[in-house]
Every structure is written in structure tokens, then in C-alpha cells.
Amino acid sequence: MISSGIDINLLTLLRLKKHLVHILGFSNISTPSTPASHVFCVAFESTRHTDRDVSACMDELLSVLDASHPFSVVASAMTESLPPNDAPASLLVGSIFVDVLLALITGSEDSELLNFPLLTIKRLIECLLVIMYKHDMGSRPLRHLQGNLRKAVRRVLNLVLTGINYELRQLCLTVAQTYIKLWPNTSGGFVL
Questions:
Q1: Cβ neighbours of residue 79 under 8 Å, at least 6 residues apart?
Q2: pLDDT digits (tens, 9 = 90+) for 150-185
Q3: What is the pLDDT of residues 51-90, one digit of tens each?
Q4: Which of 67, 91, 124, 165 has a 20 to 30 A CA-CA distance from 100?
């Protein structure tokens, strides 16, 4: 429904994010807020402490990340290290969930990623491609996730060496190629 353009406010999106993080099996979920503002951020550990299957969430997460509906996001809704009175940035509605997907990829070992069903791995990699192409990682609300994006690309590129099927290998190489093309200054360590 969110990807179809239903009108939704920031607090409702943050509550949905909190529930999604809980369903996906992340731990130490907290919602720190500032006394001066009613906006909070969803903080969680990036390692998963459960073997729950994330397949049910991947199709919908892909459609939300791929939605082209503009949405105003303040940086303090994405990280607790920024002041709460910052100006909103116009991003896409799925920008709220970028850190969740990056944590799914970076918070798992390569062997844990390979334990997912093949379609789930494919959806994770497709979501990563959507993030790189559609979301403004240089904006203030998403800038702190650039290091996690680089780690996620490295993790996906490492999957090529594990002997996964041809289609997933091609998707992994597409992720690395896209990252190098979009951010040539920060991609010095990638060797294809």
C-alpha cells in the first residue's frame, strides 16, 4: 500500500519500521526520541539473532524501496547522532527502510546469506541495486549509511566466490559494477 502511493506520515512509517525490524529478528531495538520533538529513530543491532526466514518481507520491501513517491525525511529520524531540529530532505518513501536492508546484508555472515532461499538472496541483491540507483545516499538523512552500503556491496561481491548459480553471480557482479560507476572515488578497493 505504501508503494502504491497511500498517504502516510513519518511517525507511522517509523512504527512500521520498528515492527519490521522486530519481525526480521534484529535485537536491542530501541526508539530513542528527543524531548523537544515527537520524531524518534529506530535503533537496532545489525546482527540478527534468529533464523527466521525473511522471504515473506522481501517482495514488499523491494516494492517499497522501488516506489517513486516523494517523502520528507528529517535526518534525526534515521540516526540518533544528529540534532532533532534539522531541516527535512525530500527523499523517496522507501528511504526509511534503507538501513534495514543494509543491516540484513552486512549483519549476516556469507554462510548465513547462503542459507536463505535463492529467491530471497535474489530479492536482497535486487533491493541493493534499487537503493544504489534510486536513493540519494549523499543526502543528510542517508549519508551516515554510505559505509554500510560499501560493506554490503563487498559482502555481495564475496558471494561470487561461493559457487552460487549463474543468475545470482551476474546480479552480484552488476552490484559491484553499479557501485564503481556511481561512486568511482570510493570504490578503489574493488577488483573485478
A1: 41, 141, 144
A2: 999 999 998 888 888 999 999 999 999 999 898 877
A3: 667 777 888 889 999 988 888 887 777 776 655 556 778 8
A4: 165
Total Cβ atoms within 10 A of residue 109: 10
- Cell numbers 526466514 correspond to 53
Torsion angle (degrees, nearest 10) of CA 17, 20, 25, 27 = 20
Domain parsing of the chain, residue ranges:
10-182
- Sequence-ordered strand ranges (E) for the chain: 70-73, 89-92
Q: What percentage of the chain exceeds 90 in pLDDT? A: 20
Q: What is the rounded distance in angstroms from the CA atom of residue 110 to the CA atom of residue 125?
A: 13
Reference 111, options 159, 157, 65, 62; nearest CA is 159
Dihedral (Cα; 33, 2, 61, 75), 10-degree rounding: -30
CA dihedral 85, 4, 124, 139 (to 10 degrees): -30
Please, what sign has the CA dihedral across residues 6, 9, 15, 18? positive
Helix and strand numbers (H, E) in the chain are: 7, 2
